[in-house]
Design a protein that fits this description.
Shape: globular
Largest sheet: 7 strands, mixed
Structural class: alpha/beta
Distance between the termini: 63 Å
Bound molecules: D-malate
Number of strands: 15
Radius of gyration: 21 Å
Oligomer: single chain
Helix content: 25-40%
Length: about 400
């Protein structure tokens, strides 16, 4: 009989979004005539931009011709895609060498898989609330997590406690789920702290494309010293609507060298390369060409139109919550709006209340950590029409007395 990884017993029964899908399906089974508005999981609704679609068609044609057909590609990704991403960084004022970029099928897999590179007795700081993948992937391999509190008092932007040591630090900015975004000074404090502690920051920048203020850092590498202490994960899911197409990238600078327990030097870049070439056969040629196309001037322009569409939805939600005097965070440099559950409801009660009363599906804050117990997340990734309708229903339900 196999001995099982009993760390799985420490997890909740279902992954957050699977639980929401399950509860929503149960509701629909009992109320088959109702039409739901889904503003729960951050899944996009705008189609792929023309540049990406053209690249997919062209690549499919190449695959149909023996002269241009491609088999296995480089596990790290094709040079064309890595160079396009490096140029995108440069466009945003940050130098990232193409050789430090690894193409993947998304930031979820990479943030989860990166735990392979570390021992199991590290001090791991993870904000609460946070994208549940960081916590669950650490629990799965038996790691212990130390939570750092994000709350209304610190605008959901926790800062380091200089008296506490850390080895690994997870940060996500703009943040999922709160939409809060670190400024340059705040990120500098984190980078300085990581350098002082000889720690590594695992920085998730999946929502960087939503930042419209040029003063706000879109990458941790905008901060001096970050290449000596930070890995950056990014995704095309939200930037380019690739939630179904699947493509992401992870930057592991070659400067990231740490000591082994017996004093030898190990490079995180080399370890990740070894890990990926053992367990991953690369992102498909078609998808990588589509990814390269979205980082062309034309691709960036086309993606920007979709981003503006979602930002407008975020404005519609934010305006409604302001009108209803419901306190909220996010919604400016982020597709997420994180609001305080009205009337002191806890977040799962709020989930059921919204589902039953107005058929709007959102995400209960408790799914992102204890500090989310009285918060609720809406996404701006629905259609404009659905967002407006959801907000009309909100106004009916929570009208200002
Ligand atoms: C979310 O809704 O938090 C995201 O869509 C989940 C993800 O990116 O995996």
């Amino acid at each position: 009989m196999p001995k099982l990884n009993e760390n799985y017993l420490k997890l909740k029964d279902n992954y957050l979004f699977a639980e929401i899908a399950h509860r929503t399906a149960a509701y629909l089974q009992q109320h088959p005539d109702q039409t739901l508005i889904r503003l729960g999981i951050g899944d996009v609704t705008r189609p792929l931009c023309k540049c990406a679609v053209d690249a997919l068609h062209e690549s499919a044609d190449e695959m149909a011709d023996a002269k241009t057909f491609k088999g296995y590609g480089p596990e790290q990704g094709y040079a064309k895609t890595r160079e396009a991403i490096s140029a995108y960084y440069k466009r945003n004022g940050v130098e990232v060498d193409a050789a430090d970029i690894f193409i993947s099928d998304g930031a979820k897999s990479d943030t989860g898989n990166f735990t392979d590179l570390f021992a199991h007795d590290n001090v791991i700081l993870i904000p609460d609330p946070v994208y549940p993948v960081y916590v669950d992937s650490n629990l799965m391999c038996g790691n212990t997590v130390t939570y750092i509190s994000g709350n209304a008092e610190n605008d959901f932007l926790p800062m380091p406690d200089e008296t506490v040591h850390a080895d690994i630090i997870y940060l996500c900015s703009p943040n999922n789920p709160t939409g809060a975004c670190y400024n340059r000074q705040q990120l500098k404090v984190w980078v300085d702290y990581a350098l002082k502690e000889n720690a590594v920051i695992l920085f998730d920048s999946a929502y960087e494309a939503f930042i419209s203020d040029p003063e706000l850092p879109r990458s941790i590498y905008a901060i001096e010293g970050a290449k000596r202490c930070a890995v950056e994960f990014c995704s095309l899911s939200k930037t380019a609507g690739f939630t179904g197409t699947r493509c992401g990238y992870t930057v592991v600078p070659r400067e990231l060298i740490f000591d082994t327990s017996d004093g030898r030097k190990l490079s995180l870049h080399d370890m990740w390369n070894r890990r990926q070439s053992t367990k991953y056969n690369g992102t498909s040629y078609l998808v990588q060409n589509a990814a390269a196309a979205i980082f062309s001037e034309e691709g960036i322009r086309e993606c920007q139109e979709n981003l503006e569409y979602y930002k407008n939805n975020a404005r519609v939600i934010a305006e409604t919550l302001t009108e209803l005097k419901i306190p909220f965070f996010g919604g400016v440099h982020s597709p997420y709006i994180w609001f305080q559950c009205p009337g002191g409801m806890d977040s799962w009660t709020c989930f059921d209340y919204l589902l039953n009363q107005i058929q709007v599906v959102g995400t209960p804050g408790a799914g992102f950590g204890e500090n989310g117990n009285h918060y609720f997340r809406l996404t701006s990734f629905g259609t404009y029409e659905a967002t407006v309708e959801a907000m009309r229903r909100f106004k009916q339900l929570f009208h200002v007395q």
